[in-house]
Design goal:
CATH class: Alpha Beta
Strand order of the largest sheet: 1-2-3-4-5-6-7-8
Number of domains: 1
CATH superfamily: Homocysteine-binding-like domain
Structural class: alpha/beta
Low-confidence stretches: none
Order of helices and strands: EHHEHHEHEHEHEHEHHEH
Radius of gyration: 18 Å
CATH topology: TIM Barrel
Strand content: 5-15%
CATH architecture: Alpha-Beta Barrel
Length: about 325
């Protein structure tokens, strides 16, 4: 049975870490081949499962060390029908992979002391690239598309769903609607360009307000991911109602744009200590920021720096 589906503890103001850049860590630090950036494909072998278990345990040990909670985000960012089909998955094998991803996190959670609060989240990624909008769905089309994966998560012990790297509002609306239909709490994370706007060109606050308006406020909170803090801190208004809806940040280590990251052949992991300080600064602007993690280029060093800087500022 899910532990927190009816009462997510990260909504109560306590600090919850989550992981860093899973795919960039596996590619650049572990030397793994990840076709299509699809980490979920590792779940099909025992060796791949072991790599993912080691990855998550590294972060959970940090959370235990510092006495904070943790959001375990499934390695399923690419585990939706279009991307999976390119890797040879049919609907049956894709559903099995999504279930396996959650089951692995349940096993990891259960191996730790019960005092470490761990929320299990089914990660939903974009139908398209994640850096560019590409072919845009209507919200109804997005609901139907993402319901495939979200319905599978609802049948597991996942506590919630988190949509990562949303590039336009209509897809986010579809995810929220599908999650509501499956009875799953949902967090929505938008990515932004270096000017703080979504890849669609929409302002961040306009996208959030559109989603809330068209879903009756379904998302339990919003996040920002796959952008450096310098790319979005200037658009945040600490006194605005929409800013209070942001509870999570998973920033990039690099200040490079999405286009530059696409062309990069070497990892830009930035400066972990500076990165931690920027999160502490964000906490002064985002009054409800409780879920702290990373995206491209970040690893356990960055997340520990974020944790230390954040706890020092509380």
């Amino acid at each position: 049975m899910p532990r927190y589906r009816d009462a997510l503890p990260q909504l109560n103001g306590d600090i919850f870490l989550t992981d860093g850049g899973l795919e960039t860590t596996l590619i650049f630090h572990e030397g793994m081949d990840l076709p299509l950036f699809a980490a979920f494909d590792l779940l099909k072998t025992e060796a791949g499962m072991a790599v993912l278990q080691k990855y998550f345990r590294t972060y959970l040990d940090l959370a235990a060390k510092h006495g904070v909670g943790f959001v375990l985000e499934a390695a399923t960012w690419r585990a939706n029908p279009d991307w999976a089909a390119q890797l040879g998955y049919d609907s049956t094998s894709l559903a099995a992979a999504n279930r396996r991803a959650i089951d692995m996190l349940v096993d990891i959670r259960d191996s730790y002391a019960s005092s470490l609060r761990m929320v299990i989240s089914g990660c939903v990624g974009p139908r398209g690239d994640g850096y560019v909008v590409g072919t845009q769905m209507t919200s109804d089309e997005a609901t139907k598309y993402h319901a495939v994966q979200i319905t599978t998560f609802a049948e597991t012990e996942a506590d919630m769903v988190t949509a990562i790297t949303m590039t336009y509002a209509e897809e986010a609306i579809g995810v929220a609607t599908a999650a509501a239909g499956a009875g799953m709490p949902v967090a929505l994370s938008f990515t932004v360009e270096t000017d703080g706007r979504l890849p669609s060109g929409q302002l961040l606050h306009e996208a959030m307000e559109q989603v809330d308006s068209e879903t009756n406020g379904t998302p339990v909170y919003y996040m920002i991911n796959c952008a450096h803090p310098d790319h979005f801190d200037a658009v945040l208004d600490p006194d605005a109602a929409w800013t209070a809806r942001i509870r999570g940040v998973r920033a990039n280590a690099s200040r490079l744009s999405h286009a530059e990251l696409d062309d990069a052949t070497e990892l830009d992991d930035g400066n972990p200590e500076e990165f931690g300080g920027q999160y502490a600064a964000l906490r002064r602007v985002l009054p409800n920021l409780t879920v702290l993690g990373g995206c491209c280029g970040t690893d356990h060093r960055h997340i520990e720096a974020v944790c230390v800087a954040t706890l020092a500022g509380t």
